[in-house]
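Q: Give me the 3D complex with uridine-5'-diphosphate.
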Amino acid sequence: MDLQQRPLKLHFIPYLSPGHVIPLCGIATLFASRGQHVTVITTPYYAQILRKSSPSLQLHVVDFPAKDVGLPDGVEIKSAVTDLADTAKFYQAAMLLRRPISHFMDQHPPDCIVADTMYSWADDVANNLRIPRLAFNGYPLFSGAAMKCVISHPELHSDTGPFVIPDFPHRVTMPSRPPKMATAFMDHLLKIELKSHGLIVNSFAELDGEECIQHYEKSTGHKAWHLGPACLVGKRDQERGEKSVVSQNECLTWLDPKPTNSVVYVSFGSVCHFPDKQLYEIACALEQSGKSFIWIVPEKKGKEYENESEEEKEKWLPKGFEERNREKGMIVKGWAPQLLILAHPAVGGFLSHCGWNSSLEAVTAGVPMITWPVMADQFYNEKLITEVRGIGVEVGATEWRLVGYGEREKLVTRDTIETAIKRLMGGGDEAQNIRRRSEELAEKAKQSLQEGGSSHNRLTTLIADLMRLRDSKSAT
Ligand code: UDP
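A: Here is the predicted complex, encoded as structure tokens.
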């Protein structure tokens, strides 16, 4: 066989959170669809989901050392931990994965490692094997580049209130300052990213924009590879990330009779847990808006919805809410088939925390957003969606919070949420323009993965680049 044609052997190591596993396995599937040998290294929980959702991927399973760090046995996904102490333990356990994964790599050395930047140790592992490492961080380049600008201006943190991102290709006004601790952690991740051979981005060039890509590559000297959107890989009705508590049929039966663009889908991803009083405001806003809705309320440690007393329930849901809204609304207490819901023509708006996967899933489905960022990259993602691409309206959230750092101080009120819902779902000129831009961008997203599209071409170039590296190494 011609050396150039020999498939690459790639090992992917996704971080153990649905928001990281889902997109990186989508990217891994793209490599596999081009005939490359892909192995995903993961833990038993994700292995059972991936066996069904991503049959083209080989899996290598390592145990998650929950007990070694004092977490209950069986905790293997980040969304299962909601307080600061357990979040720190979870991270510590993820660091301990270095040993079994290095052992596997020594026995089965790949040509390239594709690792989440949360695994800082992956850099050493790749260096020891003298192979390239590609980094993955889960957010768009726009947000990574914006964070970099913010990090390199420490004076920004000595003040409060809104600010314009300095030295950035777009004039973007942020509503408030990120917490110092969050910026310090992002700085740490960025350093790991910049030591890699390149950055894999789950987005497409037309969404981040060429000006942003050039800005990142020029200011860092680092290469970014836009290969997404990963959510367009595979079928929309696959189970992903976690097991759904509601069947696809139930969702479709509920959505099918609803008019086009009449339903608001409300979900804040896998790790954001709002306090009861904020959930209460959301419930009131949905009812006041008069719009139909599907509202996902994730399970939270210590909160078991099934056995909840009326008194407990009324802390987060107004009395009689479910009975009054039986026709208009569907509340899902747990995990829902998000891709399937977003793809339904009845869904006309997505009230979201702007997690990057959710945002990209909305973009590819052509569903405009009502943005409500909560932490990390979400505040930057919001700006890409609203101010830069014009495919959403802001709810007006200003409070950045780290997972587990106490209750949020500021409530987003029912009236504010209702206003944003009506702005997008009301059908006025602004809403129609947003909807038109969303549909155009969805079309570009699909084209990017087709033969000759921007992401398709980048993947071709990246595979050729990695093959060249491998072959030059074996020639020495
Ligand atoms: N998701 C889902 N069903 C749910 C909640 C989330 O399928 O009920 C998926 C969603 O489609 C997305 C991922 O989980 O792919 C969440 O990732 P995102 O980056 O949006 O947010 P995070 O959970 O990381 O905050």
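A quick observation: The pocket of uridine-5'-diphosphate is lined by residues 17-19, 22, 240-241, 267, 269-272, 296, 335-336, 338-339, 355-358, 361 (CB under 6 Å).
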